[in-house]
Structure formats: C-alpha cells, structure tokens
C-alpha cells in the first residue's frame, strides 16, 4: 500500500498428495495455539544413494548467551547440548520455545507482548547430527530460509560465514565431502538476529503484532545431498503452448551438469517426460559446468500434440507432468533430478486504460484474490495450509497474493493441484525497498545488499518457475526498484527462464525497463461504505487493485472469547477509541474508531458484546460482498474495466480483528460468507450506484432462459414492490446482463428496507438468491478528504430500522453421514413463525457436544435469509475427527432469530 504509515530454496520434501476434499493432519480440529512439544531431535540417517536429498529431521537450539563453549566444540559430534531445546526441521527460535511450553498461548490477550525481546538480541545455535556409512560419495549441505544470517559449521570446522549466508531467500550449497566421516556427523548454524529494516528477510509491519524474535531461525529444510562426480542442478522444463488453439506445446528441457572433481569426466545425461525419452553424452573438464538442453529440434517427442493443459480452478483441469533426469558416469548413477511442471500460458498486457489484464491460455481472467499470511511464527503445517487454500476456492477466489513471506515448496505444490493461482513478490516497508522508498521504513542499501537481492531473485525464480499456479512475480510492492536493482532482478529471472509476466510494483509506480505497473494501490484499508466500491476512482472497481478492503473484520463470538479476556471484550464494544492489541501495531490502525463510528451511525449504538458482534457480521457481509460484486460487474465494461482485485487480506497469521476473510481458528464470519455470495459462478446482484439488478455469469458457457425477480420489503415484511423479468440470457466468461433497474422511489417504502433478488433457471430451480438491507438515505463520502487508507464518510445510511424487526423462529432438522474420515451434515432450515417478518442473515454453526465450533468446515451456503414459509437445505463437510468423538449439533442464530442448538447425529 502506498504510502504506509508504518507498515524460501529447494527442499527435499516428498510430493504432497492431496486426497479427498478434507485431509487429516495435525490441526484437524483447528490450528493449535501452540504446537506439541518436539521430541529430542533424532539423528538423521543419510543414505548413500546417488541423487538422494535428506532433510535434517530436527535441531537442538540454545541462545549463545547461555553457551560458553567454542563454535568448534559445539559443532563437533558428541557434544552433549544439555538443557538445549528440541526444535523441528523448520523452526524459528520462538516457534521452538512455544512448542516446548516456555511461554503461554501467544494468540490470547497480550501474552505475546510479555515475551522478553532481549532474549532474541543475540545469536542462537541450531545443532543437528546425521549419520553416513559411505564416505566415497560426495556430500553437500543444501539450504535456504535462514533468517537473517548464519555462520555454518560441520564437525568442528567453519564452512561458511554469516557474511555469505545472509538473506531469507538466498540458496546455498556447501560441499562438505572432505569433512564427512563414517558414523555421526554434526552440522551447526549460529543464526544472527533478524531486523527487516536492515536485512533482506521477512517482516510484518502493520499486519500483526510482530513476534519478539522477528522470526529469526531456520524456516526451510536443511538437506544433506549425496552424489557422484557429476551433479545435476537447475533441472527444469520451458513450455511453449500454442495459444489460442491449445493444440500443441513445445517442451525444452534444461539442466546444468557440474563436474565436482579435479579431473575430466564423461557423463551420460538421460531423461524422460511421460513416454518420451532422450539422452546425450556430455564431456566435462575438471570443475566445469555445462548447460544440457533437449528441445523438439533434437527430440521430436518434446513436441506435444493435444497436450494436457493446466487451468485455474473453475476454468478446467489441473494436469501435471513429471521430468526425470539421471547422470551416469562409467555406468554408475552419479545424480538424479525430478521436477513437476504444468503446461499453461500466462500473458498480462496493459489494456487501453493502462490496467494490467491477465490472460490464461488465451482466456481473460478477472483476478479475484486476497492477501495470504503465513503463520506468525512461520510454522509449516500442510493440513492447515490446505484447509485455508480450500477455503479460498470455496469463496470463489482464484488468486492469492504473497507479499514476501514466500511459503515452502509444498504450498505451491498444493496450489498447483487445487488450481489456485499465486501472485508472489517482494515485500514493502523494510530493507527490500529501503533504497527507493524515500522516508518510509527500511535502511538504504549498501554494496553488499545488491548481490544478496539478486541471489534471492535467482533462487526464488528457480524454485517457482515450474509451478503452473504462479501467475506473475512482483519485483516491487509499494515502490518499484531503481534501474540497478531492476536490472539485477530481470537478469536473474531471464537466466532462470522465468515464464510468466514480471510486474514492477503493486502500486502505480513504474520501473525504468518494465515501465508502467498496470496496478493501483489506492486503498482503502479502513472502513468505507458498500457504495464506495462502485465509483471508478480511488479504490473503486476499475483497473487492478493489488490490495484493498474496508479494514476490520470482527470474528465470531466463539473466536473472540478464545482470543481475548472478558475485560478486553468489554472494552471492544464499549470504547471505539481504545487501542486494540489484536488489530495492529500501527498508529493508523491501532483502534477501531472509524469502523465503530460507522457501525453505530448506520445500525445504532451496540448495547452489548453480542449486539456488537451481530451488527459487525451484517456490516462485514454487505461490505465484502459489495467489493467483489462491483469488480465482477465492471469487469466487462468497455470503459475503464475492472481487471483484478486483491482483498486485503485473506487470512491472518494470528488472532486478529482486521484484514481477514477467515480467522486464525478457521471460523467463518460475515466477511467470509459475503465473499462466498458475491463470487457465485452464476450470480444475481444489486448495484449501489445506479440501482440496477445485474446477472454475472462466471461460468464458461452462456446461461439462457433465466428469470430474475426483485422484491422490496419493509422491515416488518410488508411487500412494497415486486418485478419479474423472464427470458434473461447472459454470455459466459464473466459477462453480465441487466434485466431490470429498481425505481428511484417506491410508495410506502420505509427508510430502512430489504431487497430480495432471486434468479431461477428454465426449470424454475433457484440458482442464485441475494438479500440486501438498504436505506433511502445513502452513505455520503467526502472524496476530497481521501487519505492513503480511506475516504471519510460524512453521512451514514440509516439501517437502524432493522432493530425493529420482530424476533422470528427458524426451525432446523439435521442428519449426518460419515465415510472415510469425512462427515457431511445436512441441515434444513424453515421459517416457522407467523406474520410477515423475514429471518435475516440466519447463521448455522456446526458444534460438538460442548458447543464448540467444529472447524474447518465447508458450507454449501450460510448466513441465509428466509421469508415466512420458506425453507432451505444446507450441507456442511468436515473431518469426523473434529467432533472429538461426540455427536454433532447445529447451532442456529440470526439477526432476529433466537439462538438454539439441535442434534445432528
């Protein structure tokens, strides 16, 4: 965002196979607040097989302030390491201490603030043992993800200094063949403290309260590689797809063959992709490296007809190919390489208005995205990550933006298989942009920083280029790099055969070579009314907005009670001016004043915590829905079309009160279901700017013979307007049609009123329903008072009439079936009350026998509105283990529906 007030690396992990719609995992019942204590690090057995890469299974760690022994002693086999803390193979210092119970739950109250920062102002030792039997093989340490720098030792000898092993994204391969001995060997890292204003690493700025250790540690695998005289490195496949026909694709295989010996050798390099095999003899002088290339010119089988093309979810399937390479010397395998890749084409030219318009395989793509946050302590849990990725798909999103915090390989492997696009790039507001961001945070660069940045770009390009999920790379965030930095980045990307568009910044700042970014970073980041999004200025629905939202997203009562004390919850609803620790460390976003003023001004002052939270859910539902609906409607406009929007953010790395569509515990609130509603494949919606009723078709095929109906009601359910339009047709690929426009005035309409939109198909089946709560008095924006983070509202819409809605009962019946660890609960809701008043925004929560939410869960729909006599059937899918052996229940509540829980066994 511009400007903000204060605002990993090959691994050897096995390919993660995603089975079923909900996988098991360590966080099956929702993420742990603290991890289970690690067992003492096992000694890693490293096999002798050529081409093997074995991650160290864990470490022992301790502060250098508590270790008097020399580095040579600490890094020698047999060192006792008494009193050291066991840690996992990827662990920051604080993550390990939390896992060992040193500190209480950091996500509750201000516990994180109580952790002494001084403990992390000195280096920490990471120590691990591994065994080898055959020392005839060559051995190397392969790693990245050092935050922020480290001295590296093996068997008592220093093999690298912190001046060389620096930067979270730089990749290192250290030849330790001469030091390895049969039996037990020791590797030790002396990790330096991290400062994102001084180091090219990771920081948090205004997302969350930053961890006291600033994420210092080893956050990616340290791999022990074994091989023969010739090593294969940088194996990858360059794909060229015929667009728009998609009838053929050319594959070019490249790898570097490196002679690691002092004498000349001849190697046979052979490979295969599917049923196509290829090979070549390569002569290498002592310590020589050559690039080996196979292309359709010499290997006709690398020209594919009717290739299996990779598509984003909702546009097609996600097939993947595999490359296998082997280098053999004198008949003996010396090294192997395997890479998985997809075939797809991404283009992102600037349109006539200067906005970046992405196209995948020749088809236009409206980027509907959100900002991704890793765990606050950079802990990696594949099941928890997959749960969040599947939530993103459930919301109808197609893209996640990673501003820095580039996740491990498995993240991108999951995204490949799920069809979820990823937009990675460097982060703002620290050292990464210190050379170009003027008075913003981050030290200016020294000469030593330029090679680190270029090496970081080279390593990430090599790691990410084969993932079809990777849509682009943003080499700047709030600011674009200068000519020198940009050239270094572009050289590294070119050398890596980077296949997708490179964007100079996430703001509208150009760079010297790439030119215009085609993006805007105009906010907002704090509350604005729903109608804001329809105006084609500032953050409204025109062009590509790389990060934006209406700010606060108050979680459910369940999550709030889990993360805050009763006293803090009391302050939450009573005092808008109070500093909220769970919002942001930023002075701009430290309170909820703007949000709370709007909530009271539009809905009425809250009378209790429960009332505050229920009003927040309505406010968040309508606002997030409007953001995505406006961009969806305007995508097909001939003038200044919307080309992309990234909701800031998708999730939070900790227990937060803002910038999230799903909370830390994977509970779902109004923000979540507002986004889910807006991004329906075939969707009927209302336009706040011109009162038009619009049908948006995100499916590939056209939709014909639809019927659109719009009905207006007063809060008591009195119908005052009704219109039906038949024969509605809408083309596919994001096209929209406007079957009707609501009149500017309707006799008998109350100041606060309800709009119900229903879309049915040719058979009369309801395919989309959307309910709005509106006012004849519109929100008034002070556009001239716009700041970098919001546009002030000088007059609020009057939605206080919702308070007059009578309480109405909603009956519920539910049944559950289970199979293979997954359960599905089917819930039928019925408005069972007399009179005419509808049940507004009825929420259903799946709970266990103690009344606690079962999470994660995916609902077919939720937060639904029912008129008298209406019923709806919803389904919830979740892990059976989430019930902890109890019978499921369904808790029903709503704006004007009393809470009750019914059995769902």
UniProtKB/TrEMBL annotation:
Residues 788-897 form the Exo-beta-D-glucosaminidase Ig-fold domain. Residues 231-344 form the Glycoside hydrolase family 2 immunoglobulin-like beta-sandwich domain. Residues 81-192 form the Beta-mannosidase-like galactose-binding domain. Residues 1-28 form the signal peptide. Residues 815-829 have a biased composition (Polar residues). It comes from the Bacteria. This is Beta-mannosidase. It comes from Streptomyces capoamus.
